[in-house]
Structures are given as C-alpha cells and as structure tokens.
Amino acid sequence: MIVSNWKMNGTKADIELWINEVSNKIEYKTEVNCVICPPSCYLDSTRSFITKINSPVQLGSQEIDSTHQGALTGGINGQMLNDFSTEFVLIGHSEQRHYLNEDGVSLRAKLDSAIDSGISVIFCIGEPSEVYSNGDTKNFLTNQLDILNSEDLANITIAYEPIWAIGTGLSAKTTYIEDIHGFIKNHLKKIVNNKKVSVVYGGSVKLNNAEEILSSDSVDGLLIGGASLDSETFSKIYNLS
Ligand code: PGA
Fold first, then answer.
1. What is the C-alpha separation between 132 and 203, in angstroms, rounded?
2. Distance (Å) from CA 2 to ligand 1 centroid
3. Are the C-beta atoms of 223 and 159 separated by less than 8 Å?
4. Contact in structure between 113 and 65 (CB atoms under 8 Å)
5. 204 within ligand 1 shell (Cβ under 6 A)
6. Average pLDDT over residues 86-113
7. DSSP H or E segment with residue 91
C-alpha cells in the first residue's frame, strides 16, 4: 500500500490534476493499493474525479468521528464517508494526537466507528524524539497498540511514523525501521493468532530514500506526506513498490 496524505494542503483543482496524472503514470499492481487521503472537504469531489476516469486510485479519509449520529458540530461519521465510498481512514496520526488531544479513549471510539462502517483503518503510531533518544520506543509503541483487539486487526494496517521523522527531512534508518516493524509484527501476532498484520512506514519518505526503505521485507508500504503532493514524485515512488 502506498498512501498519499495531503494533510491541510491543496485545492480541488490540484487534486483533480493529481488523480489524472498519477492514474496515467503509475504501473498499477492490484496487490499494491494506491490511496489518496485528501482534506475532508474534497472527499466527495475526489471520489468523482476517480470515478470519472475509472482510476485505480482508492479513497482514504484523514478523519472520522466517533459518534454515528447527532450533535457534533464539524463532525464527519462513517455513514457520510460511505456515501462517497471511502475505502480507508487514517486514525491516530500524531498531528491529531497532539493538536486535537486524541487519546486512547477517543481513538478507540473512532476505531469502532470505522470498523462498524466497514472502512479499513490505517492506524498510526510513533514515538516522539525524547522517547527515541531514551531507547524506550518499544514500550511506547506497545502502549499505543494496546487499544487494538483481534477483531480490529482483520481490518487494520499499522503505519509506523516516528514523530521526529515527520516533516523534518530526517527519515529513520532502514535498519531501525526493520527492527521496529519486526517488533510490531511479532507483538500483534500474539493478539491475532499468528495472522500477518501489514505495517507501512511514514516519516520524510522521499524519492531518494523510498527504494531502500521498500526493499526491506518488513515494510509493507509507505505513508507519504509532503513528497506525495507532487504527482510525478508520488508515481515514481509507487512504481518502486
Ligand atoms: P511527511 O509526512 O512524509 O511529510 O514526513 C508523513 C505523515 O505525516 O504521514
């Protein structure tokens, strides 16, 4: 899975151009999902751009709220996401954990909302720099993974995104990514009866480091922010997978 996370960037016209160009440039393989997560206000039009040209690009939301119905000003629920056939949703991104104060309780409610709505979850985890420097990453990630249960894991991809690597240009080294992905997979195996859980990497993935990161057997794909906004770069990275 190669995912483009647009965060709070772009216009409707930018997204249409991106969908058209990426659809032309990628050598699409059915076993490698190609996903765009546009800002929520463009989800509906993004679905239309995809449908219009019968593009293999799949649609992901950056947001889902935990309540199914009712009074939450600004909220977006699973039913709304299903209205435009949203296939994936990002939950637990470090920017939302930080700026929106998301914690285990609110994330658990979002997971329930997505799973009940039949939307596949990309669950983001990752440690801040002080935890990394203290060598405490694995304990930290174990806590973040603790809210998942075996039922969730049938519908979940984990995105490992060290916070110190997001948007900084400092991607983690491949040996470190391998160690952490191996740890996550082994940890989750115990919860899901030895079934395989996919783990993708995110954090300053660029054209010049993507090939090396993807060459590792423990890396099942990439979640890309800044570098993915350029359709040419994103397509080249997809074609390396
Ligand atoms: P980045 O962002 O590629 O710009 O570091 C990744 C992410 O936050 O998903």
1. 14
2. 12
3. yes
4. yes
5. yes
6. 95
7. strand 88-91
Q: Please give the structure tokens belonging to residue 31.
A: 């076993």
How far apart are the C-alpha atoms of 160 and 208, rounded to whole Å? 19
pLDDT single digits (tens) 171-217:
999 999 999 999 999 999 888 776 789 999 999 999 999 999 999 99
- Protein residue whose Cα sits closest to atom 7 of ligand 1: 225
Catalytic residue among 63, 95, 127, 161: 161
Classify domain 2-240 at the CATH superfamily level.
Aldolase class I (3.20.20.70)
Using 50, 70 and 90 to split pLDDT, how confident is the model at 107?
very high
The CB density around residue 67, as the number of other CB atoms within 10 Å, is 12
- Indicate if the pLDDT at residue 150 is higher than 90: no
Q: What is the mean pLDDT of the chain?
A: 95
Q: Taking the domains of the chain in order of start, what are their residue ranges?
A: 2-240
Residue owning tokens 């309780």:
105
